[in-house]
Amino acid sequence: MTTTPTSTLNTATGATHAAILGIGAYRPSRVIPNSEVVEAIDSSDEWIQQRSGIKQRRWATAEETVQVMSVAAARSALEHAGVDARQIDAVVVATVTHMLQTPAVATAIAHELGTDQAAAFDISAACAGFCHGVALASDMVRGGSAGHVLVIGVERLSDLTDVGDRGTAFIFADGAGAAVVGPSDAPGIGPVVWGSDGEQFDLIRQREDWRDVLASDQPVMPHLVMQGNPVFRWASYAMAKIGQQALDRAGITVDELDCFVPHQANMRIIDAMARAMKLPDTVRIARDIAEQGNTSAASIPLALDRMIAEGDARSGDTALLIAFGAGLAYAAQVVTVP
Ligand code: COA
Q: 7 lies in a domain?
């Protein structure tokens, strides 16, 4: 049925192009080497490095809350972008480890940063959250619902990790990364390729929902559980195709790509995707996982921040971001490095 409006509404129009204007990161102070996690899971430093590429990870202290880490990462992204907090119209926080069901942590972060009552909300897309946030922010800036958007990926996965679980204890970690998305003279964020496969909902999940936990005589934290091997196979092969689609939609060939910044889940997955996409040796690849572990929604901005700091990603470079995880959910886009 076609509705005939009784009056004509104004619609918003935004910037012609959007780009990431600045990146920031916060790495928690506690460095946890493999030697600290192996005993509880009957493993070894050698096995962990060989199977995952992880040498150490960062776990947050009690003081390094989701909000504290987010604000620190956001401040450095704002500084990098040369944007004042009062210019931020929306704060989008991707996380699965803000432990209050409501309100969203984004409102507290927006307030602490000193935004002028920016719109603020959390999104739950697990490890794919940051790329979902960048896609939303790009559309918001171009659609006219925000001038500048702060996108934060933040996790305290150590709160939801069972240190005695062989399949996850050595993988998950904590940290925060942030990006300022705003108007730009040239296109700086390519079309997103995103989707989900809910048939595989149970592959990575919180073990039980809170009502089941509380109904138990002896409630225990409902930790994350993961069927590592099927996730590994899905990520290694299906995700390379998504990365290629993101390149195609942006009109970029692998030879024009400077940087590859995949979700930092496992070094072998990173290598398998690079092989499947036939990335030339000239493409610099993010390998933050070795020092940082898997920080879910924070992993891509943390990895990009390191590449910028170490000179592996330079302003103006073309980078492919691709994120995937629980849901299963995924998102990829080509961006210009700020
Ligand atoms: N330490 C030592 N040995 C371990 C171990 C550990 N922590 N965990 C499993 N093993 C053993 C198993 O018992 C098995 O032994 P067996 O061959 O004698 O039966 C062997 O190692 C292989 O187990 P498997 O589970 O098949 O290992 P894998 O090669 O798949 O590696 C992961 C395990 C978790 C590293 C890998 O599956 C992975 O990284 N998956 C994806 C994780 C991920 O990306 N998660 C987040 C997505 S956002």
A: no
The residue nearest atom 34 of ligand 1, judged by CA position, is 228
Contacts of 12 (CB under 8 A, 6+ apart): 143, 144, 145
**Residue 229 Cα, ligand 1 centroid: separation in angstroms?**
6
Please work out, in degrees rounded to the nearest 5, the angle formed at the alpha carbon of residue 188 by the alpha carbons of 182 and 189.
90
Provide the percentage of residues in the chain whose pLDDT is more than 90.
96
Cα dist. 244→92, 105, 264 in Å? 27, 34, 18
Q: What is the pLDDT of residues 47-93, one digit of tens each?
A: 999 999 999 999 999 999 999 999 999 999 999 999 999 999 999 99
- Within a domain: 12: no
Q: Do 180 and 198 have their domain in common?
A: no
Residue 170 Cα: closest atom of ligand 1: 7
pLDDT of 266? 96
The CA-based dihedral angle spanning residues 221, 174, 206, 332, taken in that order and rounded to the nearest 10 degrees: 170
Q: Is-catalytic flag, 263?
A: yes
Question: Do 147 and 167 fall within a single domain?
Answer: yes
Bridge partners of 281?
Answer: none
Ligand 1 centroid, distance to 304 Cα (angstroms): 27
